[in-house]
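Hi C.,

You asked whether I'd gotten around to modeling the 274-residue construct. I have! Everything is below, sequence then structure, no commentary in between.
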Amino acid sequence: QLSDFKAKGMGSSAEAINLSRQIIDRLLDMDKRVQQAVSNFQQSGIRKPAPTIAGKMEQAMRWLSAPAMDDKGLGQQAVHELVREGRKLAQTCQEPDRSDLLQKCDSVERLTRQLADLCNQGKGDTPEAQELARTVQEKLNDLRKKMDETLVKQIADVFLDTTSALKQLSNAAHAPADAPNREPEFGNKAGSFDQHSALLTQTAGRVADAGSCQNKKTVEGIKNTAGVIKDLTPQIIHAGKILLDNPDNQAASEHFELLKREWMNNMDKLTSLV
């Protein structure tokens, strides 16, 4: 209607001015309602699950400190995701670390289920629920500590030597044309490099998923860099095979060396991130 008034040259008329005021009032009221809705949304605790372990721990602990609070299940979901990550990590461990981690996961899950049952019965603010929530907090902290210790141990083992497998592959690719067993030697070194590269990126992935890093950008950086290394690994093996088959080809040699440098640069970056 206001645009009609303007089109007729009546934009400054009393009717148009009054309509403008009504529109402004409605916009202000709408803005107030939106701000209130945002505030209610934030106060209710309805948020997406945190992307990091540290964030999940914060969400879980917030619920456990007041289990009667209605956070729309976010706290319980955070606990379940922490347990899931703990079990995933346990599958990469040797005994007795594996059994220890799984036992801690089972304990947290069992106690959380008991607490959730009390909350569903409207007993989240009872002394029994409060005591159970404190126990879950202790068990959850214990689980996270064990996860951190396990990851530190894996990082120390896997990232102790990141380049030897690549150097051995390079030596095999540059083997003289008359060297004995060139083909099987290259195949062996390629397999070793592929396996070690996969172990490095998988370990980094576990750090991103189950580590204690609180910085979302760092977690994304770990995943992205690990992805680049994963993509480069078969390219290096392929380029090495071309060089093996064409030992006097300068272009093949330069391409192989270029991919090697790119892989090592990204590996240095990944090592600094984990």
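If it helps when you're writing up: The chain has a mean pLDDT of 86.

Thanks,
B.
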